[in-house]
Amino acid sequence: MAEVFKMPKYPCPFCKKREATQLCDFIIDHFFTTAKDEKGRMIGMQHETCNNQMCTKCMTVYGGLEFCPSCSKLWKYIQDNHERKPGRLYYDTLFGRNNNDR
């Protein structure tokens, strides 16, 4: 007798076989809000994530963040092709110097 395959309620859009249980954590936007929390403190910087649905087999973990396959490709591309050119501002900020120290 043939096995009956049951479709998952939320199928993974990448493999289309397993249940999507995770959301992608890749940060796609930063924004500042002046909203306040319940104690009256300003919330400040916020970020928006990709939130693609995925199963645990399709996700890739980088530093505790779970990325979908498309964001994982983007992350690898950025790591391989990003050209870092730190200048004086970077070192002055890093070592706590300001413009008056010159």
Automatic annotation (TrEMBL):
GO molecular function: ATP binding; translation elongation factor activity
Keywords of this entry: ATP-binding, Elongation factor, Nucleotide-binding, Protein biosynthesis
Name the record gives this protein: RNA polymerase subunit RPABC4/transcription elongation factor Spt4
Organism: Paenibacillus peoriae
